[in-house]
Amino acid sequence: MVSQPAFDVKGKTAIVTGAGSGINYCFAKLLLDKGCNVLIADLSLRPEAQRLVEQYSTSTPRAVFQKTDVTNWAELENMFAQATEEFGKIDIVCPGAGIYDPPWSNFWHPPGTSTSRDTRDGGRYATLDINITHPIRTTQLAIAAFLDSQKLDPSKPRAPKRILIVSSIAGQNSNLHTPIYVAAKHAMNGFIRSLSALEPRFNIRVNGVAPGVIKTPLWTEHPEKLQFISTDADEWATPEEVAEAMLTCLVDEDLPGGSILEVGKEQTRLVQALNDPGPSGPGHTVSNLVGKYKEVYGLLEGGDWGRLRGKL
User: Fold this and answer.
1) Which superkingdom is the protein from (predicted)?
2) In the beta sheet, which residues pair with residue 210?
């Protein structure tokens, strides 16, 4: 592929969901450090994210926080409206918010059970609303916004636009503990690759990152998940490493639409669509995982798993 002039984030505007903490916070911080305005969309801000917004509240570039429930489509639309009002245009959209099969929306805790917030008559799983429906709907809104902005001066070539999806090594792996999360990330990999043809026609690039085991609140604030990790055999990658790979997805002209970068500890590589060897090495191993399957087996062997009595 012939190398093209790099996409420069300086002077651009980004929307990043889930940037109140973790990987997406680090990505928002990196964009701001590089001169890109950022609208941070999340339910709340951790202290470090609050400080970031305060630091860039009146500067150029600028950060704005928009409280957003990513399962609410009206709030997603408002997120785009607010970004347009604040900055005039949108160039980069990262629907990064995600959850890791918490007990309140989990395959092994069916709707209606004591730990689940998914109701028996709700017709949906919150974990899928966040991990699949939210990035799909946000991508639709982003494409519509990009096409509108590209019409402003039809005499000029279409301005380059970027969408960045956060997948996971779970998009290639399996995990009995978190089958809905695994299904969601497999879905995101297919979604990213399916939109690859947008770039040559509309100059809208949709790429993704597939983080491994990253030391963020998604792990550290969930003791039940930390039990999967062996402190002797497993290693953490950092959210800053993922943020750098996310930036690479935006600016590297040798990564066309549909590309997915996998990120482990001190290793980043391109995931092939076919015959890929799969994740391995530091930052990708979870040594206690299969041994903990006995917890799932115990639920199923209890005699009444999934049986809910009474009317809805």
Assistant:
1) Eukaryota
2) 262
pTM above 0.85, yes or no: yes
Q: Which residues partner with 92 through β-bridges?
A: 14, 162
Q: Where are the beta strands (DSSP E) in the chain?
A: 13-17, 37-42, 63-67, 92-95, 161-166, 204-211, 260-264, 267-270
Q: Which of 215, 229, 212, 103 is nearest to 167 (CA)?
A: 212
Predicted local confidence at residue 294, as pLDDT: 94
Q: Give the Cα separation of 281 and 25 in Å (integer).
A: 25
- The rounded distance, in Å, linking the Cα atoms of 256 and 206 is 8
Could you read off the pLDDT of 88-138 as tens digits, one per residue?
A: 999 999 999 999 999 999 999 999 998 999 999 999 999 999 999 999 999
What sign for the dihedral angle of Cα 174, 177, 183, 188?
Answer: negative
- Rg of the chain over Cα atoms, rounded to whole angstroms, equals 20
Residue 46 contacts residue 25 (beta carbons within 8 Å): yes
Tens digit of each residue's pLDDT (9 = 90 or more) over 194-249: 999 999 999 999 999 999 999 887 777 777 778 888 888 999 999 999 999 999 99
Residue type for 114, please? S
Sequence-separated contacts (24+) of 151-158 with Cβ below 8 Å: 157/203, 158/202, 158/203
Find out whether 6 and 253 touch, Cβ atoms under 8 Å.
yes
Report how far residue 45's alpha carbon sits from residue 51's, in angstroms, rounded to the nearest whole number. Answer: 9
User: Measured at the alpha carbon of residue 73, what is the angle toward residues 70 and 76, in degrees to the nearest 5?
Assistant: 60
Cβ-in-10-Å burial (0-12, 13-18, 19+) of 192 comes to: buried
Taking the chain, what is the end-to-end CA distance rounded to the nearest angstrom?
Answer: 58
Nearest residue to 146 (alpha-carbon basis) of 23, 6, 2, 12: 12
Element (H, E) at 25: helix 22-33
